Amino acid sequence: xxxxxxxxxxxxxxxxxxxxxxxxxxxxxxxxxxxxxxxxxxxxxxxxxxxxxxxxxxxxxxxxxxxxxxxxxxxxxxxxxxxxxxxxxxxxxxxxxxxxxxxxxxxxxxxxxxxxxxxxxxxxxxxxxxxxxxxxxxxxxxxxxxxxxxxxxxxxxxxxxxxxxxxxxxxxxxxxxxxxxxxxxxxxxxxxxxxxxxxxxxxxxxxxxxxxxxxxxxxxxxxxxxxxxxxxxxxxxxxxxxxxxxxxxxxxxxxxxxxxxxxxxxxxxxxxxxxxxxxxxxxxxxxxxxxxxxxxxxxxxxxxxxxxxxxxxxxxxxxxxxxxxxxxxxxxxxxxx
Length: 337
What we know:
Number of strands: 2
Structural class: mainly alpha
Number of helices: 13
Shape: globular
Order of helices and strands: HEEHHHHHHHHHHHH
Distance between the termini: 58 Å
């Protein structure tokens, strides 16, 4: 089959499968108790079915098995999606979930990097395991409002498609990224502007895990690594900055919260969820495109783009939190923020 035919086939199949299962979960999720019940930390006010990302996982497995035919890669990467679906249904403890994620990440890294137990090898190996698990959970942290995961998934895997096809010339990853980007689009009509279904861990943790694996496979040097991780830079920045500030305040990092930048915008400032998600996706597209441009110009350009992004994000986050602190002080006469 030609690459053009493959792309057409993959887009149609992935979009249709994802949309179909999103519809099924949105319609029957209540009956099988696949429900996300809101609490004081939630951004929604009524129970909504979760697990709509199962269609993204199924589309990915189908493309992997029948088009790409990289069975070991598909098995490892799809296993994290199965874990996510189990967690959506039974709500596993965070410790069990993390242990299984680490084990799957170890298998994934070992498949492509045969450790020889030298200090440098162990350090390199450990970093990649941490990177994969961290990215998977960062995606999950950011999956909190309508459209956030779907729009960012479309942009992130769309940018990775461009890199893997035009620069890395890796057809397998190109086809899988096309499948994931298309599947994210198929999910969006059921999640935006008003959610009939949530993606759930089966979608969010899976997408983060797979993206990290693609980074691992494509990164032949530090230049490549910086470029591809910039395709996910907004999620990385929001998650890492939030973790840092919560750690600085002595908060329990394992507890749910509403202190991500997107949560401030959607909850405290009452922006429509889909608008916040669209802003995130547009910012991601802008800086991801700049990262592709900088990669062709050299390492110095890449560092400049990275520093500029970090500066802008930190400035905006600090200004927003300071504004909220002042508002809360005026309302309550004390600092409660």
